[in-house]
Amino acid sequence: xxxxxxxSFFLLASLAAYYFLAYHASREHIExxxxxxxxxxxxxxxxxxxxxxxxxxxxxxxxxxxxxxVATPAFSDDFYRFLWDGQLLVHGYNPFNHLPPELMNAQLRxxxxxxxxxxxxxxxxxxxxYTCYPPLNQLFFAIAAFVGGNxxxxxxxxxxxxxxxxxxxxxxxGIKILKLTKQPLYRISIFAFNPLVINELCGNLHFEGVMMxxxxxxxxxxxxxxxxxxxxxxxxxxxxxxxxLMIFPLFMKRKGFVFALMAGLxxxxxxxxxxxxxxxxxxxxxxxxxFHSFEFNASVFYLLRAVGFWTVGYDLxxxxxxxxxxxxxxxxxxxxxRADAQNFKTxxxxxxxxxxxxxxxxxxxxxxxxxxxxxxxxxxGNVTPLAWSTVIWLSYYSYGNPTFTENPWLLVVEYTVMYAxxxxxxxQFGNKIFISLMKLSGFIH
Length: 445
Prior knowledge:
There is one protein chain. This protein is mainly α. Helix 1 packs antiparallel against helix 2 (30-47) and helix 13 (208-223) runs antiparallel to helix 14 (227-240). The two termini are 20 Å apart. It contains 24 helices and no strands.
């Protein structure tokens, strides 16, 4: 395909929509945001399967992401906490031991010129909780603070550069894996051009892409039988976000106990600063609160929560959250036990299923969480993550009202789509019909 072809309209429409999203969209006008996302996904499905030339894949992937280069994230303020932690580290403060309000004083303002501006944008939830970001993540925040200095925009640009490079890394290594496993190159488009990925990573500066870069690089190293490197990369993956710890048993089944042990030791080495910087357990308190208090865009949990309201009259998140975490762990271990881990396709399908189980039982599922699913689906051939990405942005409806109230009907639409694809792909009941429909539509060969 040439850069300018019959699909140019869709590509240029995407470029214009990304520009609007980056510089003109806001939480206060959520209906406009929805319309832009519809345009983006309609355009995405107009070209995603037709770009298989590596140069053109990189050209458009870079172009779409560069649109956001100086944009301030409009739909997530998490990056202000990233900058806060980074500034503290660079100036000799321990982000694990203090809540933001405890440090915000005249002395800090003098030592950290950006502290007042950053603090004013940190939301109440972030202010009332200790940082929950692991040490390797903190390293990237510190790099942004060190390079960006006392300029807020420069700090943000460094964060965006890190996220951008991870995105491009996933695309380049992902293409190598697709070639190695003899899969069509257009599958990388599921990550490279997906509007949810571009907006949530380079747009809103979430680090799921950085986490998945290490995982994808680990998968490639594993395919090339560079097992020591692969185990190190797996340990680094869990040091960005803790969620990948749940897939260690699956890697152990494929590569053996020594492989998993080495990955675990790398994780413990990188995680060691938490033991020294947070001796009172503040980091773990934040993780504990996550499972006991946070609620957003859930599925199974919301159903059980409704039962709790009907039976006892109040929110049982403190009980239901930990129980669902244990159920999720049990199902993940069962998936691991039954998986054919030696075949790469079935291994990645099991990998994806582990993540799907986790998010199905989670109390909080932000849109950027499912980037991990989209990355794995590039290699597993599953369509469920792609389908989910086309509707999960409906959860942003709650951002458009002052009370942050979720719309139950939009949740029904989102999870009806997700679970319909999930059941079709992972159960015998719907699998034959599903495969026939996907072949008919051209999604799979």
